[in-house]
């Protein structure tokens, strides 16, 4: 064998597994035909958060006048933002390369595919490995429609040569809405086409309805119960026709309808590796496939599509292969944030999930105008919600919509992981004046 572990995919999960295995003395290789760091570093979490920061300045400049600031001549320069982002991503790519090299991992640049259960080919060269790890992530889903040739995905939008002053977003999941809010904040006119009746399917219903209103306040026009019928090029851009007959001429159409496993030409079917109906790979609790030497983790196995999840799965796998083998993933109470404007932070069960799983629950809900906006002039509001099991008093879910919701929720995620009760929330002294203190000062459940 050339290697103990051969990792296909240099994203978050693959890099973590490679480094940790190498640290335990294993001979490890990682192969990828794209920049190191995977989706998160190159076309996901990192550039998206940088662009989110950029978009908030537009809101902040408007708010500043309420606090006595007189701002003259501010203007947004898209090429400068793109260039700054590219420099930062390049820096991170270098850091990832250095981390792998310093750990003793062999980096192979090129498209890798499996020849058999222990053989991998890259650039025409074959390698043998005791274990193979598929950590190839996911890619944006594009519907098999004629109009799809005119659209872009989240992979493309960060590096557009010109700023899209008129943007149509197709979809209303968290990726779609994050980009809708980013480009709205940067000054674009944004329309959203969505087949449903409320954004963010799968989130708590109060959060969904609250965000419907907040998006509308910002001037983001969500066209509910609509699908794309056709897209045609015009002299000024693209003419989008919805299935309700409404037409919009825009500069770009961003399709954000979810993601699918990135497994094309990897040799999965040829090896007989079992897959789910959505083509994600079937694995057990230690991420083993039905082929004993092949493992898989991250987006490609269909779990929560979150970087920290892939990192934790990688640690579980390395412990199984080269450690004590006691580690197992716990997918309960995984906190997540949506970097819309305003932000969303959520951990634990939604109200619907809690009602389905528990006999009786209490709901604590507070909606208010943040202190900042008493002077800013903005009509933005915040939402806080707790879901509590009546029998045990344990807090089952925490949901926040408002500025820095993700930052607020990290600590409460620890509390839920520890099994915190509503009484313990009540005994906690709040930090005043903050929005977060609302989560420890709500005393009366709402009438149900």
Describe this structure in words.
- There is one protein chain.
- Helices cover 31% and strands 24% of the residues.
- By secondary structure, the chain is of the alpha/beta class.
- It folds into three domains: 3-139 and 260-322, FAD/NAD(P)-binding domain; 146-257, FAD/NAD(P)-binding domain (3-Layer(bba) Sandwich), CATH 3.50.50.60; 336-440, FAD/NAD-linked reductase, C-terminal dimerisation domain (Enolase-like, domain 1), CATH 3.30.390.30.
- Strands 1, 2, 3, 4, 5, 6 and 16 form a seven-stranded mixed sheet that branches.
- A hairpin with a 2-residue loop joins strand 11 (228-234) and strand 12.
- The longest helix is centred in the N-terminal third of the chain and has 25 residues, at 78-102.
- The N and C termini lie far apart (64 Å).
Summarize the structure.
The chain is α/β, with parallel strands linked by helices.
How many structural domains are formed by the residues?
3
Give the number of DSSP strands. 21
According to CATH, the homologous superfamily of the largest domain is FAD/NAD(P)-binding domain
| Strand residue percentage | 15-25%
Mean pLDDT, as a whole number?
97
Could you say what the CATH architecture of the largest domain is? Answer: 3-Layer(bba) Sandwich
Give the terminus-to-terminus CA distance: 64 Å
For this structure, the quaternary state is: single chain
Question: Segments where pLDDT lies below 50 for 5+ residues?
Answer: none
Here the CATH topology of the largest domain equals FAD/NAD(P)-binding domain
Q: What structural class do helix, strand and pairing data support?
A: alpha/beta
Percent helix, as a range, is 25-40%
The coarse overall form would be: globular
Question: Regarding CATH, which class of the largest domain?
Answer: Alpha Beta
Characterize the biggest β-sheet. 7 strands, mixed
């Amino acid at each position: 064998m050339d290697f103990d572990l051969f990792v296909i995919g240099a994203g978050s999960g693959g890099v973590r597994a490679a480094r940790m295995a190498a640290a335990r003395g294993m001979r490890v290789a990682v192969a990828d035909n794209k920049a190191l760091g995977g989706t998160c570093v190159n076309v996901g979490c990192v550039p998206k958060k940088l662009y989110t920061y950029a978009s908030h300045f537009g809101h902040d400049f408007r708010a500043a006048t309420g606090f006595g600031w007189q701002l003259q001549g501010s203007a947004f320069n898209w090429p400068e933002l793109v260039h700054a982002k590219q420099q930062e991503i390049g820096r991170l790519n270098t850091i990832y390369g250095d981390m792998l090299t310093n750990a003793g991992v062999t980096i192979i640049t090129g498209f890798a595919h499996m020849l058999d259960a222990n053989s991998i080919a890259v650039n025409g060269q074959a390698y043998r490995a005791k274990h193979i790890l598929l950590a190839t992530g996911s890619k944006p889903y594009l519907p098999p429609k004629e109009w799809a040739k005119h659209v872009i995905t989240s992979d493309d939008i960060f590096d557009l040569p010109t700023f899209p002053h008129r943007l149509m977003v197709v979809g209303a999941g968290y990726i779609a809405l994050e980009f809708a809010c980013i480009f709205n904040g940067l000054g674009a006119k944004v329309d959203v086409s969505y087949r449903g009746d409320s954004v963010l399917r799968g989130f708590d219903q109060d959060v969904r309805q609250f965000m419907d209103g907040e998006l509308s306040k910002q001037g983001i026009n969500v066209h509910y119960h609509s699908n794309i019928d056709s897209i045609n090029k015009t002299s000024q851009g693209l003419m989008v026709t919805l299935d309700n007959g409404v037409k919009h001429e825009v500069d770009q159409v961003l399709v954000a309808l979810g993601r699918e496993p990135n497994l094309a030409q990897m040799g999965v079917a040829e090896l007989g590796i079992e897959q789910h109906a959505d083509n994600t790979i079937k694995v057990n609790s230690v991420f083993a496939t039905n082929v004993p030497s092949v493992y898989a983790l991250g987006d490609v196995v269909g779990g929560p599509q979150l970087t920290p999840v892939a990192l934790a799965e990688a640690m579980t796998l390395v412990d199984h292969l080269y450690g004590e083998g006691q580690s197992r993933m716990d997918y309960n109470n995984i906190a997540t944030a949506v970097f819309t404007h305003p932000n969303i932070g959520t951990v634990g069960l939604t109200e619907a999930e809690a009602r389905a799983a528990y006999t009786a629950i209490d709901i604590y809900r507070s909606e208010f105008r943040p202190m900042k906006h008493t002077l800013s002039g903005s009509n933005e509001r915040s939402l806080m919600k707790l879901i509590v099991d009546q029998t045990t008093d344990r807090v089952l879910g925490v949901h926040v919509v408002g500025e820095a919701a993700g930052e607020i929720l990290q600590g409460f995620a620890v509390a839920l992981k520890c099994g915190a009760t509503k009484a313990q929330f009540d005994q906690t002294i709040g930090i005043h004046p903050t929005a977060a203190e609302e989560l420890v000062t709500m005393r009366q459940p709402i009438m149900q």
